């Protein structure tokens, strides 16, 4: 498992694509600098993002972290940080 900027970019790209898919947003929609709340994610969509993170990255992100003030890019960094601690 890589622990460098390339791995972080991969997680960031993956999370952005995941958010777009779960929230049914256009591929051109800017999501990295926005929170899930700013993207108008419903509670069910937020649970969907949480589940995908757990299923595909094996990282637990709490609901309050997802609905808080963290942008999608910051959430990706959080995931990478937790992956490094687990590894």
Going by helix content, strand content and strand pairing, the class is: mainly alpha
User: Count the strands?
Assistant: 0
Instruction: Report low-confidence residues grouped into runs of 5 or more.
Output: none
Proportion in helices: 55-70%
- The percentage of residues in β strands lies in under 5%
What is the rounded Rg? 12 Å
| Distance linking N and C termini | 8 Å
| Number of alpha- plus pi-helical segments | 4
Give the averaged pLDDT, no decimals: 91
Helix and strand element order: HHHH
- Name the shape in a single word: globular
The biggest beta sheet, please?
Answer: none
Structural overview:
60% of the residues lie in helices and 0% in strands. The chain has 4 helices and no strands. By secondary structure, it is mainly α. The termini are close together. The relative contact order is 0.20. The mean pLDDT is 91. α1 packs antiparallel against α2 (43-57). It is globular and about 35 Å long.
């Amino acid at each position: 498992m890589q622990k460098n900027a390339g791995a972080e970019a991969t997680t960031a790209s993956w999370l952005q694509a995941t958010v777009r898919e779960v929230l049914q947003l256009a591929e051109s929609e800017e999501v990295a600098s926005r929170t899930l709340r700013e993207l108008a994610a419903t509670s069910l969509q937020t649970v969907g993002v949480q589940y995908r993170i757990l299923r595909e990255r094996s990282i637990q992100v709490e609901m309050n972290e997802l609905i808080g003030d963290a942008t999608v890019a910051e959430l990706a960094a959080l995931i990478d940080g937790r992956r490094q601690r687990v590894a």
